[in-house]
Amino acid sequence: MAGFNFKLIKNPLSKENPITVQVLGICSSLAVTAKLQPAVVMAISVTVVVAFSNLIISYLRNTIPPRIRIIVQLVIVSLLVILVDQVLKAFVYDVSKQLSVFVGLIITNCIVMGRLEAFAMSNKPFDSFLDGIGNGLGYAVILITLGVIRELFGSGSLWGYQIIPDSFYEMGYQNNSLMIMPPMALILVGIIIWVHRARNKDLCEK
Amino acid sequence: MFSNRYIFIYATVLVIVSAAILTLASVGLKPYQDKNIRVEKMQQLLGAVGIQSTPKDAEELFQKYFVEQHAVNAKGEVVASIVNGKQTTGSISPFGLDTKKQLVLYKANDASASLPLYICVKDGKKSYVVPVMGNGLWGPIWGNLAFSEDLNTIVGVNFDHKGETPGLGAEIALPDFQNQFKGKQIFDNDNFTSIKVMKRADKNNPHQVDAVSGGTITSNGVSEMLKNCLQFYIPYFNSLKK
Fold first, then answer.
1. What's the pTM?
2. Residue B195 falls inside a structural domain
3. What separation in angstroms does the CA of B146 have from each of A115, B128, B158, B201, B237?
4. Nearest-CA residue of chain B relative to A68?
């Protein structure tokens, strides 16, 4: 077994970020980031699902008949997603109610299938597991950034606690309700991609 | 290459193993999930009488304030009662009744339909709490109504919904909408009139409440829900008044 390949965790955080560079998983990053808490729970859920589906598929990769590989991948991913959904319902009920359909939609989250096809089908289990963690964290970084910005300016709070003091509101400050709508999340993702590429010239298309 | 036989066996084994794991998880986590649903139901009942609760203290507060639970049928008879935690009549638990299923039975004129009614005593004041359930625009809406001792005047309500449009229909879950119901009446000289959620409602009319602007279908859903569900309790209310 190969040693601990740190690059597999580090690269997806920036240079190979699943959202800003691979442009996978945009849909859920727009949908669940109006508040910080669901964004964090979603990020953890996706990380768990990607890491473990990568691990399992990588263990099975030499036994999977190529003709039914997508179906096998789907079975493994949906198995994990249902497990995550059940665990959330049992232990963080109110968050699971907010995330409602999005947990189920992790199955269709492009990051999961994308990493299975691109990495786990042709790499060793431990490396695949690290790749899954890395990509999950890369997804998490963007989700949490969006969650912080949107909740702070859209609702004046973080994690449900009020941050912007009442005196601001008395002076006429208003929460920006565009922040809690999905279009603003798309604009923010665009800004993040812009800043990211401006600082990493090698990412820009010729 | 893999033979067809291998593919069939592989797929079968994979599916059976997955199913087994899911079954185990579902059975193992069921008690926790059921508890969450129970606690949520209690919090909503407590909310109707204006008691704030957290998932932690909901069970305790519910036991403290909701001293009587009854299951009543459409003829106005009590089929089961739990008073101070002890079953006094019947054998079913009123709290465990599935409102949705019972309303379907009621619509089909099934005599076995029964719905729960809770008696809450807070600061020496008695109030009657009943659940209601109906349809909004996108999915189910539901809630609880608390009546004062005259079984006519509303002292508090709370509504919730599965997926009404945020900012429009979803406003029914907010205090601004719900507070309008306080003091409204469902009887007009002993005739059941229910409460209508409508545009340009007259504030002084005890049977009208202002609708949510932009949420017309959800608002109409609330009116329908109140009419249909309260209808069920009228015989019981009348029998209590005698």
1. 0.74
2. yes
3. 53, 5, 9, 22, 13
4. B7
